[in-house]
Amino acid sequence: MSATSRPFNTLLVANRGEIAVRIMRTARRLGLATVAVYSEADRHSPHVAFADRAVCIGAAAPRESYLNVPAIIEAARASGADAVHPGYGFLAENAAFAEAIAAAGLVFVGPAAAAIHAMGNKAEAKRLMLAADMPCVPGYQGAAQDDATLLAESKSIGFPLMVKAAAGGGGRGMRLVREAAALPAALSGARSEAAAAFGSDELILERAVIAPRHVEIQVFADTHGNVIHLGERDCSVQRRHQKVIEEAPSPAVGPALRARMGEAAVRAAKSIGYVGAGTMEFLLDGDGNFYFMEMNTRLQVEHAVTEAITGFDLVEWQLRVAAGEPLAVTQDEVHLNGHAIEVRLTAEDVPAGFLPQGGPLLRWRPPAAGRDVRVDHALEEGGAIPTHYDSMVAKLVAHGADREAARRKLLRAVEDCVLLGVPTNQGFLAACLAHAAFTGNDVHTGFVDIHMQAALQAAVPPRHVTACAVLAASGLLGSNGNPEALARAASSVVLNAAGQTWDTTLQPAAEGWRVSLRPRGEDSQPVACTLRVLRADAANGTALVECDGVAHPLVFAADKHALHLFQSGRAWQFALHDPRRRRDAGDADGVLQAPLTARIVAVNVTEGERVEAGQPLVVLEAMKMEHTIAAPFAGVVAQLPARAGGQASAGSLLARVEADAAVKEEA
Fold first, then answer.
1. Which end of the chain is more exposed for a tag (fewer CB within 10 A), N or C?
2. Residues 6+ apart with CB under 8 A from 622
3. Cβ contacts of residue 331 below 8 Å, gap of 6+?
4. Which residue from 299, 378, 306, 366 is spatially nearest to 342, judged by alpha carbons?
């Protein structure tokens, strides 16, 4: 038994949200007491209420709470915890954290610090994997980091090539370079981004594998020398190098290739004395050649699809291995059954470039039990989604006899999942799952860029049926369901959503109401329809509304800005007034507002300074992503309330640029 592996009774989960709840659920089933840690922003989070005990470890900012190692260790001491599970994200792959946990006399539910350190740097990991006879993409991972060396190495590697941050992940510090002339700028940009994100500007170069699949092998090792793999996952559907959809097994991997990849992954894990759950990530080309990318020394977000096809609880395995128990099965006893697909539901504005969102959670209704879909989340209606952390708020996982059965089941569940209050990627996920290329297994890491551009553009305006539903919902909210009051409340309303504006009227008819919708704009034709409210519960935000003889269930809620509506598998936000200006119309008069609640990390100009169009003015950070606010035109910074280190709420004024005279004349 390892010195850091021994039986324990109380588990502290050094994480938050859905993964904290998921870990604690298994721990509770195994008879362990659980301890949650939380920031001030998460005081009312469901993961806090789910635990047996909970300890506040600091302010909302991650560096003051979930990345605060002394505070976490003190929380373990104060709560009587004798083991710590890092979840994923935050400190999960931090070797210094694993060392600190062991030094405090606690069991770390994960690999030894030495293994985390070895795999945490892409250059060192690649050198170790080459020594273990692992197939790797040709490239350069040497110590010399000057431009001259990297330029010289690029000539032998060939173009196109990838520049990657040695210490990084998640796409930060990564550049695709197609020709030698573009390399110097790519090196400069990657270094700057890597240093800001990871505290290291070390880079590696790799030959670019064009249109590959991203396939990973789940490995598991105990303290008794046993190492096995649990098959592969396909994580090729990505945006900005962030995974969106994962499935197991990979549709591109057959038994022979699975055996070769699995053997390579097990051999590599043994070579570094690995213990616990780990993932070897590969690029797989169209000819069946696979190349090592990196090893994740933790539980993966997508572990649920492996659990679905193997029947194993991977968190249970982690806890048993950490307690010194041997693996319960051998490689020959691992069988893959059926197919599983997972999607990541995120609080993001997709047309705005997947801009992370935060705010009140007005309605949360996961798919009905009859959908037979696993939903991992830590959401509670009436709560809030903070902007300080990752934008993923839930995972939906479907398992079926084959890929198509799992896909159909998951698509229906996604369309049945209600989250109102902030924009999400729900519609984008449904579009991906329904796309002919995904259905036909034409999937690689360029899937989103090639096939989903339409879904990434401005949202398609809702149909007249949805506009009718909004009239009914707005009337119900203003009338408490009284028919006469409903007619008065919704008799004349201006609706605006996704760039479309309607002037509306609602008049009593023989049965229900007669609705007139007049879209604004050229070539727009008015629409007339009949509307009936068959059933309504305004307090709970539900109704059954009939439009032209077809009944539609609704979920709705309102805040001070808009009415939020879920109808026919889509969530909408309607402004119940005449906005007269586009969402970004403030740019026209130089008023720059925060698109979301975020921390102000940099202010690059001073009040009174002259700026050019497109010049970066303010940099915001929310949910681990940076957002640059640029000058809409050339002019002078007339107002600059933004202050570096401060907090900006959604819609607050960051800066105002006064246009040059030439710009004003053109306007």
1. C
2. 356, 358, 387, 388, 596, 597, 598, 599
3. 228, 229, 266
4. 306
* Candidate list 298, 403, 407, 412, residue with the active-site label: 298
Residues 6 or more apart in contact with residue 293 via CB below 8 angstroms:
137, 214, 281, 282, 283
Q: Tokens for 523?
A: 């070539």
Asked if 67 contacts 73 with a C-beta cutoff of 8 angstroms, the reply is no
Q: Is 365 a catalytic residue?
A: no
269 or 198, higher pLDDT: 269
Output the CATH code of domain 110-137+212-337.
3.30.470.20
Q: Which long-range contacts (CB under 8 A, 24 or more apart) does 531-537 make?
A: 531/468, 531/471, 531/472, 531/506, 533/472, 533/476, 533/481, 533/483, 533/486, 536/476, 536/481, 537/481
CATH number listed for the domain at residues 139-207: 3.30.1490.20
Round to the nearest angstrom and report the end-to-end CA distance of the chain.
74
| β pairing state of 563-567 and 570-574 | antiparallel
- What percent of the chain shows pLDDT beyond 90? 66
Class of domain 10-109: alpha beta
Task: Locate 350 and state its tokens.
Answer: 């997709």
pLDDT, the chain, mean:
89
Token representation of residue 94: 């931090």
* 72 has pLDDT over 50: yes
Size (the chain), residues: 667
Domain 341-452 class? alpha beta
Give dist(CA 640, CA 637) in Å, integer: 7
Q: Which CATH number fits domain 464-574: 2.40.128.270, 3.30.700.30, 1.10.150.170, 3.40.50.720?
A: 3.30.700.30
Cis upstream peptide for 462 (omega within 30°): no
Mean pLDDT to the nearest integer, 540-544:
93
Q: Residue 272 has what pLDDT?
A: 94
Helix ranges restricted to H, 332-482: 403-415, 426-434, 436-439, 447-451, 453-456, 464-479
Question: Is residue 590 a contact partner of residue 640, using CB atoms and an 8 Å limit?
Answer: no
The model scores a pTM over 0.70 = yes
Structure tokens at 533: 């409210």
Q: CATH top-level class for 585-666? A: mainly beta
Cα 20 from Cα 311, distance rounded (Å): 21
Query: Which three-class secondary structure string do you get for 279-316?
Result: EEEEEECCCCCEEEEEEECCCCCCHHHHHHHHCCCHHH
Looking at residue 583, what is its pLDDT? 37
Query: Which of 29-33, 221-225, 571-575 comes out lowest in average pLDDT?
Result: 571-575
Q: Any alpha helices (H) in 145-285, and if so which ranges?
A: 147-157, 183-198, 255-271
- 367-394: average pLDDT: 92
CA-closest candidate to residue 576, choices 503, 635, 633: 503
Q: What is the 3-state secondary structure (H, E, C) of 171-205?
A: CCCCEEECCHHHHHHHHHHHHHHHHHHHCCCCEEE
What pLDDT, in 10s, does the model give residues 426-445?
999 999 999 999 999 999 99
Token couple for 528: 């007339």
For the beta carbon of residue 493, count every other beta carbon within 10 angstroms: 22
Q: Are 422 and 356 in contact (CB under 8 A)?
A: no
Question: Among candidates 342, 338, 301, 351, which has minimal Cα distance to 17?
Answer: 301
Query: Which stretch of DSSP H or E encloses residue 95?
Result: helix 95-103
Write the CA distances from 249 to 65, 231, 244, 257, 344, integer angstroms.
37, 7, 16, 12, 18
Q: Which of 420, 448, 391, 392 is nearest to 627 (CA)?
A: 391
pLDDT tens-place string over residues 60-69: 999 999 999 9
